[in-house]
Specification:
The complex is a heterodimer. Chain A is mostly helical. Chain A contains 15 helices and two strands. In chain A, helix 2 runs parallel beside helix 7, helix 2 packs across helix 8 and helix 3 runs parallel beside helix 5. By secondary structure, chain B is mainly alpha-helical. Chain B is about 70% helix and about 0% strand. Chain B is globular. The chains are: A mainly alpha, B mainly alpha. At the A-B interface, helix 5, helix 9, helix 11 and helix 13 of A face helix 5, helix 6, helix 11 and helix 13 of B.
Chain lengths: ~325, ~350
């Protein structure tokens, strides 16, 4: 019990929000491709490119915003390549996604060596990280300030995006077209919606958010780039997307679960649990969630109640 | 796969030749793309490729080294191939390789058995561990249709971390650095050549590939697997027990992946080391994709990738390009192959987008 009370503290809540942000951003990006009917396994690679070019851009321009620009651009280029192969050439999503992930890994390592002459990681004082925002007034109120203030801007962006993405998907024409493209492509085409264009657009938006997630990794709390630093978060996001179906609120819940697992396991590490076991926790959690929820999909009643519980708002928007 | 896509009689080139031409073209495009990347990192493509070739084939030792690198890729490629032909993706070969390698090494350094038997038991342990590692994703896929792509990928991360944990926290050799005790001599996988670590694993890999080819080509069960791979609904209609077959296909794929790990620890390292075989599992998956699921093609693809790997070691020393350039080239190859395969078999817009043969 004493361990539990040590683990569950206010700073744990703050840490949860912090670790949720990158996976939430990338998963929300994936929500667009999921809704457009593309199984996007390439999130990991887009995120990694975002992280790498975020660092490069930050060094070139001398500002974190410049880093954000370069990181997002690189990720969008990956996303465009993905959708070119998957949508235009009708290649298999898994194969293309896998290839692009492998390419991102190889390319970032090769470029690291070519530009910096080192293997492994880029640590450099000229990399400008994201500033922390101290929300006025709230920052000084004790428990509230600890939870709501002092994050990098992208953490706020991530949580705001849940609403924005919901708004785009369920309250705009673009969102409607994207969803119809994913659910009933024939119907969409007979209505004159250009499904291929919708899928390209969804993939580009996905690239933007995946890029932001990557930049958050390399310029957020840790200001450096390391080999394969996305370390499976893109795949965890895909797991979230599978059992959430890309609905922003369910995506948020799933990502909070991982953020919590991540933050709590880091706590365990400070208590002397082997780091290997600790790093395993988020993966085990995502696997369990994936398996449990696919098992739950069997009885329809359970699935429907789960839907009602988690997404009353989303259900309304689905009426189209 | 040539027989399932019955060629129209007016076709002038046989299907396999058309496939081969396509693969060669993909290779050419990828090597050109690789050249662009090499220029991007500030090296001369010609120089880098020459060094790569010299590293892979420059001397007898280098050729042996290429074969050594190709061995686990062949076995992993066959593992991925089994799943691919059944219409499934086992991207978790890497994880199965790790747990299989650890299990085999554990039998190697813990048990005391007579010479021949020890190797067999150790390899069997590797296979069992590999099958066990894919068991949960396989059951969930067969029974509840849980996506096996993501679950096997996530299992990779757990496998690498778990084996590292076991190696460092539980079985670490006193005074050693992230490695277990060496295995007993009775568990050594026999070597084929003096002065090189090329071992019986190569023969096992070739035998597995041939066995899979014959199984798919000449047996009813093999036909059922291929039928399931090309169209599960039709196969079910024709009496194939799809759920049971999905389970069996994934379990055998996992077992072969585990064996690849066993071959690597028993034949090459003779202990388990953290990060003992980085990327061989992924290379196997890529080899299976490049070969379009043909087991014989997998062997050639794996030999090519093995040579690339061996060559890249010299490339890293002699040029400024890092050895990961070859993974970029591999990724480009797969992109080209994926594009052109589906140009030939375009489906409808909402058609099932699984890998098809």
């Amino acid at each position: 019990m004493e361990i539990l009370s040590q683990v569950f503290t206010i700073s744990l809540i703050a840490a949860t929000l912090r670790t949720t942000a990158p996976i939430l951003l990338v998963a929300l990006g994936g929500a667009f491709t999921t809704k457009a009917g593309i199984f996007n396994i390439g999130l990991e690679g887009q995120m990694l490119m975002g992280a790498f070019f975020g660092v490069l851009g930050s060094m070139w321009t001398g500002s974190a915003l410049g880093g954000l620009f370069f990181g997002v651009t690189a990720a969008v280029l990956m996303a465009l390549t993905f959708s070119f192969f998957v949508v235009t050439l009708r290649a298999n999503e898994v194969v293309v996604g896998l290839a692009l992930n492998i390419m991102a890994g190889g390319l970032t390592i090769s470029l690291t060596k070519a530009i910096f002459g080192v293997r492994g990681s880029i640590v450099n004082p000229s990399i400008v990280g994201m500033p922390r925002i101290q929300v006025p007034f709230i920052h000084d109120i004790r428990p509230l300030g600890q939870i709501l203030s002092g994050y990098t801007p992208l953490v706020y962006v991530a949580f705001a995006m849940v609403f924005v993405v919901w708004l785009i998907l369920f309250r705009t024409r673009l969102g409607l077209y994207i969803r119809v493209t994913g659910e009933k492509p024939e119907a969409a085409q007979s209505l004159g919606i250009r499904t291929a264009r919708m899928q390209h657009i969804a993939s580009i938006i996905c690239g933007v958010l995946a890029g932001v997630a990557g930049v958050h990794l390399s310029l957020g709390y840790i200001v450096m780039f390391a080999e394969n630093m996305s370390s499976g978060r893109g795949f965890m996001a895909v797991a979230v997307l599978i059992f959430s179906g890309g609905d922003p609120l369910k995506v948020l819940l799933g990502c909070l679960l991982f953020g919590f697992a991540d933050a709590a396991s880091l706590r365990l590490q400070t208590m002397g649990v082997s780091s290997y076991l600790v790093l395993m926790v988020p993966f085990v959690v995502s696997l369990s969630a994936l398996f449990l929820l696919s098992w739950r999909q069997r009885p329809r009643i359970i699935r429907e109640t789960l839907d009602k519980l988690t997404a009353p708002v989303v259900a309304k928007g689905r009426g189209s | 796969m040539t027989d399932t896509t019955a060629a129209p009689s007016e076709r002038r080139v046989p299907v396999w030749a058309e496939g081969l031409i396509g693969q060669m073209l993909a290779l050419l495009i990828a090597l050109t793309g690789g050249a662009v990347i090499i220029m991007l990192v500030g090296e001369s493509p010609l120089h880098v490729y020459t060094v790569l070739l010299r590293g892979a084939f420059g001397s007898t030792e280098n050729i042996a080294g290429s074969l050594l690198q190709a061995t686990p890729i062949i076995v992993c490629g066959v593992a991925a191939c089994v799943a691919l032909r059944g219409g499934l993706f086992n991207i978790g070969v890497e994880g199965q390789l790790y747990v299989g390698g650890f299990a085999a090494a554990w039998v190697g350094f813990t048990l005391n058995l007579p010479a021949g038997l020890h190797v067999i038991v150790a390899l069997a342990a590797g296979m069992a561990a590999g099958a066990l590692w894919i068991a949960l994703p396989a059951i969930m896929r067969a029974r509840f249709n849980a996506n096996e792509v993501v679950s096997t990928i996530l299992m990779n991360y757990v496998a690498v971390l778990l084996t590292s944990y076991l190696t460092i926290a539980v079985f670490k050799r006193p005074g050693g650095w992230s490695e277990t005790e060496p295995i007993a001599e009775t568990a050594y996988l026999p070597q084929l050549l003096d002065g090189s670590r090329v071992n019986v694993g190569l023969i096992i890999g070739l035998a597995l590939a041939l066995g899979l080819y014959l199984f798919l080509r000449f047996t009813g069960a093999g036909y059922a697997v291929s039928a399931m791979g090309s169209n599960p609904k039709f196969a079910a209609y024709g009496g194939v027990r799809v759920k049971r077959n999905i389970l069996l296909v994934l379990l055998s794929s996992g077992a072969i992946g585990g064996m690849a790990g066993g071959i690597e620890t028993l034949g090459v390292h003779r202990r388990f080391m953290e990060g003992f075989a980085p990327g061989f599992g992924f290379d196997g998956v890529i080899a299976a994709l490049l070969a379009n699921g043909n087991p014989i093609g997998v062997v050639f693809a794996a030999l090519f990738f093995g040579a690339l790997r061996k060559g890249s070691l010299l490339m890293e020393v002699e040029t400024g390009a890092s050895r990961e350039i070859i993974t970029v080239i591999q990724a480009l190859i797969i992109l080209c192959v994926s594009a052109q395969i589906l140009i030939r078999h375009r489906g409808g817009i909402s058609g099932e987008k699984r890998w098809k043969f």
